[in-house]
Design brief:
Layout (H helix, E strand, L loop, with lengths): L1 H13 L3 H25 L5 H28 L7 H24 L5 H27 L3 H26 L6 H22 L6 H4 L3 H16 L18 H22 L3 H40 L9 H13 L5 E9 L1 H8 L1 H18 L5 E6 L2 E7 L3 H16 L2 E3 L2 E3 L2 E9 L8 H17 L5 E3 L10
Parallel strand pairs: 6-7
Antiparallel strand pairs: 1-3, 1-6, 2-3, 4-5
Helix pairs in contact: 1-2, 1-9, 2-3, 2-9, 3-4, 4-6, 5-6, 5-10, 6-7, 7-9, 10-11, 13-14, 14-15
Length: 474
């Protein structure tokens, strides 16, 4: 992103010169090519439509720029309204549709709150745009104002889609931040094109085109980012109410009456009315925020209970399956699954009772969590079965981990003066990320089968699955 900013800065300085125009079109062409390449080659089939729409929008904008440059080179002037406008205006609904598709994929069935909040803010922004941008244009006559007035309308459509994506549930990693940054750069540049001519000469205003290039570069950076799937991947995380959201909604509540004062005047009575409305809005929003926070707390608790083992706090089978499937889908990473079954656990339950068994399970869970590295996952499948899921672990490290698990699990657990000892039989399944056709259930079944082989060989050992990358048995 820093490189994109530097390029845009250089282009801005040189913009409207021959070298600047050449640099602009060359860089813009590269951005479009990368955007199409990302949409067609890097993104999975299920996630492709939004990125194809974005690539098409950028191509339309580049085509509009090229047509305008063609008019300038052949006639020496650019018409106020021309065919270029059709290409430029065509990009707005395409980008907006892409953002809406992303939001729908990220949070299916959980979009009502985001839709209502986005509509609230968009209504106020639309009213402000009408008063300060569109109405002044209409003063020049309907024929001359229709096309220029469509650009603020396009911005409102783009803003609505951006707010919809921003205010809907979903991950907020680097790709999301890059995408939103690019769109807000577009909106800021368009706003500058509408307002700056009132205070600056056009020779300075036209340099804003370099800002558009920055937006294009940031947008394609999001498309090329390794984590771009977060923009189209459904997540289960609880969406919390950010304080900034409350502030913006409060401003939206006051926005319409405040804008109305532009025509009514700012008398003492009107100002008192606005102040009272602001106080009421603040009280209502405070109450609303408290209620939402309580709902979020309960929702987070329910989500945690649905995805974690109630006794040990480890991830449950659902989380394991989801994480393993994501790892399989990411062909760049290798996967190692250690499937554990405790040896001698039933005897402890029968002899000392279920409380003793629970103490052993808690002890084993704590030791497995301590052995799990960054990016690894420890899970309990139920009963006395556990899984360690590791990513990008070399052969030697896998063998060492299996040996450490055997040692740690066999360490006695102290319970009411008793030393409770269990062992472990471990099945190992390894997937290097390059084999086609691997599935998460298949890898887990292979590890499970290897675990039963370890039990048949005498317990207290580990065995690698035959149908995955071979290691050895011990």
């Amino acid at each position: 992103m820093g490189v994109a900013g530097a390029i845009a800065a250089v282009t801005a300085v040189m913009y409207a010169t021959t070298a600047g125009e050449i640099m602009y079109f060359a860089l813009y062409g590269v951005v479009c090519a990368l955007s199409w390449w990302a949409a067609l080659r890097l993104v999975g089939d299920g996630d492709r439509r939004p990125w194809l729409l974005i690539a098409l929008a950028q191509t339309l904008w580049l085509t509009g720029d090229a047509i305008e440059m063609g008019f300038l080179l052949t006639t020496g002037e650019v018409p106020p309204v021309g065919i270029s406008d059709a290409f430029w205006l065509g990009g707005y609904p395409l980008i907006a549709t892409a953002l809406v598709l992303m939001a729908r994929r990220r949070a299916p069935g959980r979009l009502r709150g985001g839709v209502l909040d986005a509509l609230t803010l968009t209504t106020v922004a639309g009213l402000a745009s009408w008063q300060f941008l569109i109405q002044p244009l209409l003063g020049y006559g309907l024929d001359d104002a229709v096309i220029p007035a469509l650009y603020p309308v396009g911005d409102i459509v783009l803003l609505a889609a951006t707010l919809f994506l921003t205010l809907s549930p979903g991950e907020r990693g680097a790709p999301t931040r890059l995408l939103l940054t690019a769109v807000f750069v577009y909106l800021a540049v368009d706003l500058g094109y509408n307002l700056l001519p009132y205070v600056l000469d056009y020779q300075y205003v036209e340099k804003l085109g370099a800002g558009l290039l920055l937006g294009h570069a940031v947008l394609v950076t999001a498309a090329l980012h390794p984590g771009r799937s977060e923009l189209t991947r459904s997540g289960s995380q609880v969406h919390t109410l950010h304080p900034a959201r409350v502030v913006f909604l409060g401003l939206a509540l006051l926005g319409t009456p405040t804008l109305a004062l532009r025509y009514a005047g700012f008398s003492e009575q009107e100002m008192l009315t606005i102040a009272a409305s602001a106080a009421c809005a603040a009280f209502v929003l405070a109450r609303f925020t408290g209620a939402v926070r309580e709902q979020e707390r309960m929702q987070a608790q329910l989500v945690y209970q649905a995805r974690h083992d109630p006794l040990t706090g480890l991830a449950n089978r659902t989380v394991l399956n989801d994480t393993l499937q994501l790892a399989v889908d990411d062909s760049r990473s290798g996967i190692t699954v250690l499937y554990l079954d405790l040896d001698g656990f039933k005897e402890i339950n029968d002899t000392h009772g279920h409380d003793a068994g629970d103490a052993v399970l808690l002890s084993v869970a704590g030791r497995l969590s301590a052995l799990a590295g960054d990016g690894d996952l420890a899970a309990r499948l139920g009963g006395d079965e556990f899984v360690l899921l590791c990513r990008d672990r070399p052969l030697e490290a896998t063998v060492e981990l299996a040996e450490r698990v055997l040692r740690e699990v066999s360490t006695p657990t102290l319970f009411q003066g008793h030393r409770l000892s269990v062992g472990a039989s471990i099945g190992i399944a390894v997937h290097d990320g390059a084999k086609p056709g691997a599935t998460a259930p298949g890898i887990l079944r292979a590890a499970d089968a290897a675990m039963y082989s370890a039990k048949r060989l005498g317990r207290g050992r580990w065995v690698a699955a035959d149908d995955t990358d071979p290691i050895m048995a011990a």
